[in-house]
Amino acid sequence: MKVMKFGGTSVGKPERMHQVKDLVTASDEPTIVVLSALSGTTNALVSIGEALAAADRILAKERIDALHAHYLDFYPQLLETEKARKKAEAIIKEHFEFLNIILKISFNEAINRDILAQGELLSTKLFYTLLEELEIPAVFLVALDFMSIDENSEPELGKISEKLKAILAQHPGEKLFITQGYICKNHRNEVDNLKRGGSDYTASLIAAAINASVCEIWTDIDGMHNNDPRIVDKTRPIAELSFDEAAELAYFGAKILHPASIWPAQQYNVPVRLLNTMDPQAHGTLIKADVETKGVKAIAAKDGITAIKIKSSRMLLAYGFLRRVFEIFEKYKTPIDMITTSEVAVSVTIDDTSHLKAIIQELETLGSVEVDQNQTIICIVGNMVSETRGAIKSVMDSLVDFPIRMVSYGGSRHNVSLLLDTKYKKEALQSLNEGVFQWD
Ligand code: ADP
Ligand code: ASP
Ligand code: MG
C-alpha cells in the first residue's frame, strides 16, 4: 500500500483536483490519499478564530462569508452533474452552518481547533464527491477516528497503527482511501491538529502506521531545493536525500516539509518522495536511508530564534553545570536547538519563548544571562565532516561579511548550524548559494 499526500495548492483549484484524481487512479497499488485544505482556507480559518478571540463577531462573520463565497464559486467548477452538485451544496452548507453557530457561542481554544479542522473536512468531502460523480470506487476515512496525539501533543503511532489497520480491514479489496491531513484528536478527545503544514506529518504517520511502500508528498515544486526558493535567486532540486538530511532541513525551515514529518517514515524505513503536482514527470526528491553524500547538499533557515548566553566563573572546571542549565529548559518543556560552549559560558538557542521570562529568572541563579532575539539559524546540510575536507571553508568564506553569533559544527557529520541576526538572512543565504554550490 502507498500513501499520496496533496498540499493546499494541489487541491486549491477545481482543475487541480481533477489532476489529483488522475494521479491517484494512475496505479493499481492500494493507496491512502491524504489531502490538505484548499490553499488559503486554513489561513482564513485562523483569521476567523483571531477575530472571535478578539470578540469581533462582525469581522469574524465577514471572514466566514468571504470563505463561504469561495466554496460556492468552487464546487460548480469541480462537479458537473446535478446530483453531485447538490451533494457538494449540502456539504458546504453543513460546514458553514457550523461556523455560523460558533459565532453565537462563547469562544475558547477547543472551539478554535474545531474551526481549524473545517478546511481538511471540506476538501476531502468535495474530492470524494468528485470521485463518486466519476464512479471511481473509494472509501472515505475520517482522520479523527484514528489520528491521535497525547498530552504532550506527540502522535500516538502505536494506537494510530492499530486503529487504522482495524478500519482498513473492514474494507477488503478496496483500492482507494481518502482522508484528511492535519487534523486529529487529543488526549481529551477534542478535535486538535498537528500544527501548520501538518498534513505532511499525517502522511508520514500513516505511511509508518501501515508500513507503506512509499510516502509521496505532492506539492507545487519539483522537490527539495538546495536553498529556499522563496528567498534566494537560482535554486535547484536535489535528487536524493538521506532521512537525516531531510529531517534536518525540514526542522530548520525548509517549508516544503513539516518540521517533524520525517521521523515516522524513517523509523519504519518508508521512502519519502517529494513530487510536483504541476509537473508529475519531474524526478523530484527521493528521501531514503542510505544516500551517498559529498560536500554541501542544501541550506535552510529558521527565523524567530532567541539566543541565551549564560556566563559563570563557576563553570570553569566544574562538572554538573550544563546539567543544571538543561534542567531549567526541561522544567519549562522548552527544546534547545543549538548549543555552543566555552570554558566560562554556554550559549543556547530556543524558538519557543512562551516561558522565556521564567527561564531567564532561573538561569540568573547560575550566572549572568544575556538574551538576543530576532535571530536566524542557518543550517547547512551535507557531508560536512571527515571525508569532505574544505566544505566548512567555502561556508565561512561566503559569510565573511556577516557577524556570526554562534557556530555549531561536528554535532553530526551532516550539518553545520550558524546563528546570525535575521536582518542578514537574505544576503547570507544568497552569498552561501553562490559560494558553496557549483553552478555551470
Ligand atoms: P503544500 O501546500 O503542498 O504543503 P508548502 O507551501 O507547504 O506546500 O511547501 C511548498 C513550498 O515550500 C514551495 O512552494 C516553496 O516555496 C517552499 N520551500 C521552502 N524551502 C524550500 C526548499 N528548500 N525546497 C523546496 N521548496 C521550498
Ligand atoms: N491546512 C493545514 C495548513 O495550512 C495543513 C497543511 O496544509 O499541511 O497548515
Ligand atoms: Mg505544506
UniProtKB/TrEMBL annotation:
Catalytic activity, EC: 2.7.2.4
Keywords: Amino-acid biosynthesis, ATP-binding, Kinase, Nucleotide-binding, Transferase
Lineage top rank: taxon: Bacteria
GO MF annotations in UniProt: aspartate kinase activity
One Pfam match: ACT_9
CDD domains reported in the protein's UniProt record: AAK_AK-HSDH-like, ACT_AKiii-LysC-EC-like_1
Listed pathway(s): Amino-acid biosynthesis; L-lysine biosynthesis via DAP pathway; (S)-tetrahydrodipicolinate from L-aspartate: step 1/4; Amino-acid biosynthesis; L-methionine biosynthesis via de novo pathway; L-homoserine from L-aspartate: step 1/3; Amino-acid biosynthesis; L-threonine biosynthesis; L-threonine from L-aspartate: step 1/5
InterPro entries per record: AceGlu_kinase-like_sf, ACT-like_dom_sf, ACT_Aspartokinase, Asp/Glu/Uridylate_kinase, Asp_kin_monofn, Asp_kinase, AsparK_Bifunc_asparK/hSer_DH, Aspartate_kinase_CS
Domain Aspartate/glutamate/uridylate kinase: start-end pairs: 2-276
Record carries keyword Amino-acid biosynthesis: yes
The keyword ATP-binding is annotated on this UniProt entry: yes
Catalytic activity: L-aspartate + ATP = 4-phospho-L-aspartate + ADP
Signal peptide: none
Domain Aspartokinase ACT per the UniProt entry, residue ranges: 378-434
Family: Belongs to the aspartokinase family.
UniProt-recorded name of the protein: Aspartokinase
Organism: Algoriphagus limi
Classification lineage: Bacteria, Pseudomonadati, Bacteroidota, Cytophagia, Cytophagales
